[in-house]
Amino acid sequence: MLTHATLTRQGGRTYNEDHLNIVENGAGSLFLLADGLGGHGRGREASDAIVGKACEVYLAGPRAVLDECFQKSQDFLMAEQIRLNAQNEMKSTFVILWISGGMAYSGHIGDSRLYHFRKNRLQFRSLDHSVPQMLVASGEIKEKDIRGHEDRNRLLRVMGMEWNTPKYELHPSVKTAPGDSFLLCSDGLWEWIDEKMMIKTLKAAKTPAQWLENMERTILANGEGHNMDNYSAIAVWIR
After folding, report:
1. To 10 degrees, the CA torsion angle through 196, 199, 205, 206?
2. pLDDT (tens digit per residue) in 41-92
3. Sequence ranges of the domains in the chain
4. How far is residue 93's CA from residue 34's CA, in Å, rounded to a whole number?
5. Of 237, 239, 236, whose CA–CA distance to 33 is shortest?
6. Torsion sign (Cα): 58, 62, 68, 72
7. If one looks up domain 2-238 in CATH, what number appears?
8. What is the rounded distance in angstroms from the CA atom of residue 114 to the CA atom of residue 127?
9. pTM of the model
10. How far apart, in whole angstroms, are the C-alpha atoms of residue 178 and residue 196?
């Protein structure tokens, strides 16, 4: 049985520029989360645009779900930038999870993350398209240093940037099993809770909603006094 829950908060910011949605039909369950960039509400316009377009594409019955959701959302956002004269303002991260036929398919761009836990153990985490993640790859810093790095918000790939070839990243598909837990989240969430605490709160939860509630308590305690960013998440359980 698949169950899920959502969380989105404004944090200490003037606007909530995160946007998420869930679409369920005969083709499966599609989970989408975007973190808009640009400020002054333009990031929200960007995240709204790509999530809305991806839902529309999915419901139209594409043959390559993730590719079409990313690419057509990108095309739509680029057109919206021109229409609104906001080429330098409307950009967004994006993470998508599609569960269909006993398989999980996913992809991302930017630093919104997908986590996959199986029986309370971390199986997979998407790697950020960011300067600190690049420094981890080159061996200059350690993984644990990403959260507090001075360049943590410098992203190398986002929706709404010009590209000749796709910049989004598709992850290896996995066969789902009882005990699987997936988490889609914006950086405003994962910057205040590490993977060990994600697992600890997961073990203590009886539902996806309770898992998010448990994590939010930790996030608020750790982020107090830091002008917290918007934070959002989708928790998906297979039991």
Report:
1. -170
2. 789 999 999 999 999 999 998 678 999 999 999 999 999 999 999 888 899 9
3. 2-238
4. 5
5. 236
6. negative
7. 3.60.40.10
8. 9
9. 0.96
10. 21
